[in-house]
Amino acid sequence: MRAKDWSTHPLGPPETWTQSIKTAVSLCLNSRFPILLWLGPELRIVYNNAYIPFLGETKHPAMLGAPGREAWSEIWPAIGPMHDEVRAGRATWVEDLQFFFARRLPLEEVYVTFSYSPILAEDARTLEGVFCVCTETTERVLGERRLSTLRDLGLRVSEQRTVDAACRKAVEVLDANPLDIPFAAIYLLDEDGATARRTAGARLSDDPSTFPTVFPLSEHAAHQPWPLAAVARTQKAVEVRNLPSRGGIFTAPLWPDLVQTALILPLEMQSQSALAGFFIVGISPRRVLDADYRSFLDLVAGHIAGGVADARAFESERRRAEALADIDRAKTIFFSNVSHEFRTPLTLMISPLEELLAKPEGELPEDGRVLVTMAHRNSLRLLKLVNMLLDFSRIEAGRAQAAYEPTDLSRFTAELASNFGSLCERAGLRFDIACPPLPQPVYVDRDMWEKIVLNLLSNAIKYTFEGGITVRMAATTDGVALRVSDTGIGIPTADLPQIFKRFHRIEGQKGRSFEGSGIGLALVQELVHLHCGIITAESKVGRGTTFTVGLPFGTGLPAGGAGRGSTLPVPHLRASGRLRRGGAAMAAQR
Predict the structure, then answer these.
(1) What is the per-residue pLDDT across 236-252, written as a single tens digit (0 to 9) for each?
(2) What is the DSSP string of 100-146?
(3) Does residue 31 contact residue 50 with C-beta atoms inside 8 Å?
């Protein structure tokens, strides 16, 4: 202001300016906030040091005192009507208004918040100028816009379960931000790293040579539109300039400008040192590729790489689960087949042993009878194990056939339990059965229920050396509960949550016999679940164990029953909420 020769200027020397203008200029020059004055009928501009960044090096200081229409010709169509408002005596203001300044670029995208206030003469009527307080909000607007893109990338890409879907979703998000992403393409490396395959793209050229579907990474390959090989070698971003001269004609989505620059970023796997692919992105022709812009694109590439890594991990886990399922199916088929194969020779062994034991005394030597008896007993144990494996494999394969029928469950359970009376008596154990009549029948598969009761009682006798065993059945609010209690050695607290897992056995546990496969309780649980019931266990070491089986009352179950992994139709059951959630839901989880 001091160095400028104002003597020949249309505004005249400062000493001739009116008091209102002098006051406004004093406020402007002594403020550290950006202020612009539009003075005189030609709206010539005067500004302070804080306003200089708005003009840039190309306009400052040449535009000091120049007509506003000349100084801001590129934005005059937008701000001209605002001056008309002020001439009419009305102050005005705008927030985060988009402009395109001829500053660092011919048309640079800029956002400004400013106000226009009239500078009135001493008569308070004559307009002598316009007082403009302004602030550039470009960084904040761009930051919010880019943060929204990154947030959407993080949310939507991470939800995808395949690599192709993750890339397509990423491009959909980027397509919604044409101001920062004029075009984008994602290339992923194949397994050997020799070629890259275009997985997704937004606003790409129709020319297939610009973005080929498959891109060889050889440094010496002819007609390479993009230096992907250099990025693969260095794993650093490469800037590609002068796209139109290279044959890449890309028009900005919202403006007629041609995109001049693109950036190729490596998609790096964070958990590995390997490269997943490349992210090719156009740079807005109305924004300078500064540090903030680069940082934003780096974060975009990071989100895409993270989404690809997550999708690959999910696909790998899915393949692993499928492989395990195949192994599980093969195991089930093997157990089913081998069980059938075992049953035939066992039956052929047991039949002649029973014939020998049926011979009258004297026809078989005493020591021979002892040996035959031992062989027969162990054959029966082995047959029991084989049958249990067969039952378990049928349930696992979903081929368990059940025939549910209304049953006087209290009476049926008492009959099953009474078979253990003589065994308990010989073992010196007290055996109590308390199964009063129930208010209504319970729909069960009788064979399955027999296996449930016999397994629970066999376990109780095996691990009880003194005291007794109690079998109790009682009606509950919406069903029936069977409790098998003993005063045996109990189950350690650490093992209690594991006892229904297949093949789980408690180490060092003392029992009347040593046979056992660790699937008895697992089988019981599966059979209970097939009845939409639940089974729980309570135990204290040295004081005994109680198993509780809860079943719902029913009004009729499907004659075919339900296989593993299915639930019985709800209309067939009047189960309580507790039983339905505990039984059907757990069965559904399987």
Answers:
(1) 999 999 998 877 788 88
(2) EESSSSSSEEEEEEEEEEEEE-TTSSSEEEEEEEEEE-HHHHHHHHH
(3) yes
